[in-house]
Design brief:
Chain A: Keywords: Mitochondrion, Ribonucleoprotein, Ribosomal protein, Transit peptide. Chain A: Belongs to the mitochondrion-specific ribosomal protein mS29 family. The complex is a heterodimer. Chain A is α/β, with parallel strands linked by helices. Chain A has 2 domains: 284 residues, no CATH class; 47 residues, no CATH class. Chain A has 17 helices and 13 strands. In chain A, the strands form 5 sheets. Chain A has a 5-stranded parallel beta sheet with strand order 4-9-12-3-13. Chain A has a two-stranded antiparallel ribbon with strand order 1-2. Chain A has a two-stranded antiparallel ribbon with strand order 5-6. In chain A, α7 runs parallel beside α8, α11 packs antiparallel against α12 and α12 runs parallel beside α13. Chain B folds into 2 domains: 44 residues, no CATH class; 152 residues, Ribosomal protein S7/S5 (Ribosomal Protein S7), CATH 1.10.455.10. Chain B has a two-stranded antiparallel sheet with strand order 1-2. The radius of gyration of chain B is 24 Å and the shape is globular. Classes of the chains: A alpha/beta, B mainly alpha. At the A-B interface, α1, α6 and α16 of A face α5 of B.
Chain lengths: 397, 242
């Protein structure tokens, strides 16, 4: 309590008197954060933050407001998958706050009303660069994690189709290629997220790793994951087994499965990987990609598939491309058809104001002119309401 | 041959090349940077508030000045000078000095990354400190930058004076602009030369700026060395004639 007051006092000295006169509110700004969000006067905390931290209860009225994610949850739910600049911001502010926006609210509404008997519905988040597709995906993942779904999160599919140092010929199928490093890293993160499910799910088939090692029917999925992490050569096959088993067993109803893929256009694009004789490798010749394509097909039920298109990491796609047809190509679009497209756009004026208020609350905007109306108008003009651009601008102001 | 030469001398005042300014800044120095503008060209007024002031609020002198500007030709504004509220002439000058080969995009991005790095470091320190210390920690990267450069400015400089066949380092007073230039130059040279091959410029520059802000570090040390040399050579001060 005392610390809050002293922090408030130091903040009071930082803000100029004109700021207070304009707001018309005095001391209880940070104290209001602890109170319910039904404050009658328009304090900046009421515009920018809400105390409703459960994604299941987010409604239209929370649109534009930031909610707090506990840092401990962030470590378990998101060992990978946060955008790098957001991770830096989390480290700097010592807190993780996410804005509730319309596309995420729409998706939450659909997910709450999913019929688990029907085949899994595919949702595709698309939009221009920097509009917040990955963070909307993170919002959805947080919601599903809170609802105790099993999260299958591929942080960036583009990382699997480029810059791979060691490609092995797959032992399972001679035509395909293994990527041991990427697969083992993913398995480690998968284990961190879904620790509690790994012992409950039992595999329903016997798998033989090599002449000496095999895994029996009825052993837990945790053992498969362990085998993949310790024996890096078999990591890709372990990933394949995990995906196959989860797809088979999600219809049984023991758990709900969320498949979240960021940068799904990598699955149907070109790769920059080459064989020893310098001939290019197509995407389907990579075992990880092949298995993921099967996962993203809607021939299973008991969950949902949420995907994001991304031009940023993509290969051989023009910078301005953001529509599903442009990024997925004919093959990808036909494979994903039918899907529900959700457009993620720039900030509207209310969201922009909320974002600026959030930065001001955390004293991130240190430049004196950034507090003024002129400064805000200029930031709006320079960023055009694009969340990514705004974040980069405010970083050095 | 004399007649054409005289004509050339008389004809020079009609050319747009500016004449050497009547007041020489230093007896030892000649003006090297010529301007394509002749002397009657006025500098552009970039400040938005100057132009937004309504006519009724202006004083008599300001009204006269406005009317006068309508008759005078004005130079074109530089593309790097904006009417943005966030514009800072010191930062612009530093960015220009960091620029290599005309790559302003790179220089500006390095500058913004440096300011961001300074801010993040200060925030980290802020969150780690106790509440009494938090009031003393400065988080504004612009104040840190300005204060650091002010701390690096030398008060007195040295000039090489030729006397009796030998060059002596003589202590001389420095003008404001020379001091600012030297502070920026030392900062940039220090960061370019004394850094590991793998560290990036924003990282090194932010480190040096923070050290200079607290009056420590190699750039402030260089300033002190300059002062000590000037103090040691103070007997030679009478060699200066200006």
């Amino acid at each position: 309590m005392l610390k809050g007051v002293t922090r408030l006092v130091s903040r009071v000295h930082k803000l100029d008197p004109g700021h207070f006169l304009r707001l018309g509110t005095q001391a209880p700004q940070s104290l209001a954060a602890h109170l319910d969000n039904q404050v009658s006067f328009e304090s900046p905390r009421a515009i920018s933050c809400t105390s409703e931290n459960d994604p299941a209860k987010h409604e239209e009225k929370h649109e534009g407001q930031h909610y707090n994610l506990p840092l401990q949850d962030m470590k378990t739910i998101f060992p990978h998958g946060l955008p790098p600049r957001y991770a830096m911001q989390m480290k700097t502010f010592n807190e993780a706050c996410l804005m509730v926006r319309k596309p995420a609210l729409e998706l939450l509404h659909y997910l709450k009303n999913t019929n688990f008997a029907h085949p899994a519905v595919r949702y595709v988040l698309y939009g221009e660069k920097g509009t917040g597709k990955t963070l909307s995906l993170c919002h959805i993942i947080h919601f599903c994690a809170k609802q105790d779904w099993l999260i299958l999160h591929i942080p960036d599919a583009h990382l699997w189709v480029k810059d791979c140092r060691d490609l092995l010929q797959s032992s399972y199928n001679k035509q395909r290629f293994d990527q041991p490093l990427e697969a083992s890293v993913w398995l480690k993160n998968f284990k961190t997220t879904n620790e509690r499910f790994l012992n409950q799910i039992k595999i329903q088939e016997k798998y033989v790793w090599n002449k000496r090692e095999s895994i029996e029917k009825g052993s837990s999925l945790g053992e498969v994951v362990e085998q993949g992490i310790t024996r890096v050569r078999n990591a890709t096959d372990a990933v394949g087994i995990v995906l196959k088993e989860l797809k088979r067993q999600s219809s049984l109803g023991i758990f709900h499965l969320l498949v979240a893929v960021d940068g799904v256009n990598a699955l149907w694009g070109r790769t920059t990987l080459k064989r020893e004789d310098k001939s290019p490798i197509a995407a389907e010749e990579l075992a990880l990609i092949h298995n993921l394509r099967k996962m993203v097909k809607n021939d299973w039920n008991g969950g949902a598939i949420v995907m994001t298109l991304s031009q940023t990491g993509s290969l051989f796609k023009p910078r301005k491309a953001y529509l599903p047809q442009e990024l997925l190509g004919k093959e990808g679009f036909d494979a994903l058809d039918p899907f529900i497209p959700i457009l993620v756009g720039n900030y509207n004026p209310k969201e922009f104001e909320s974002c600026i208020q959030y930065y001001l609350e955390n004293s991130w905007l240190q430049h004196e002119k950034a507090h003024t109306e002129e400064g805000k108008k200029e930031l709006l003009f320079l960023s055009n309401g694009n969340p990514g651009q705004l974040e980069r601008l405010c970083a050095y102001l | 041959m004399a007649a054409p030469l005289v004509k050339a001398v008389l004809g020079s005042s009609d050319l747009t090349l500016s004449v050497r300014s009547a007041v020489l800044r230093f007896p030892g120095f000649t003006q090297v940077r010529w301007s394509r503008y002749s002397p009657e060209f006025r500098d552009p007024q970039i400040d938005k508030d100057y132009h937004r002031k309504p006519w009724a609020e202006l004083t008599e002198e300001e009204k006269f000045e406005r009317e006068l500007r309508k008759t005078q030709p004005i130079k074109a504004a530089r593309s790097a000078n904006t009417s943005s509220v966030f514009e800072d002439p010191v930062i612009s000058k530093f960015t220009n000095m960091m620029m290599k080969g005309g790559n302003k995009v790179l220089a500006r991005s390095l500058m913004t990354q440096t300011l961001e790095a300074v801010k993040r470091k200060q925030f980290k320190k802020f969150h780690a400190a106790s509440s009494e210390e938090q009031a003393t920690i400065e988080r504004n990267p612009y104040t840190i930058f300005h204060q650091a450069l002010k701390n690096c400015e030398p008060v007195i400089g040295l000039a090489p004076i030729l006397k009796g066949g030998r060059f002596y380092q003589v202590p001389v007073p420095l003008s404001d602009r020379r001091r600012r230039f030297l502070a920026m130059k030392w900062m940039i040279t220090e960061c370019r030369e004394k850094k590991h091959r793998r560290t990036l410029m924003p990282e090194k520059l932010s480190q040096e700026l923070l050290q200079a802000f607290h009056n420590q570090g190699p750039v402030v040390k260089r300033k002190h060395d300059m002062h000590k040399m000037a103090e040691a050579n103070r007997a030679l001060a009478h060699y200066r004639w200006w």
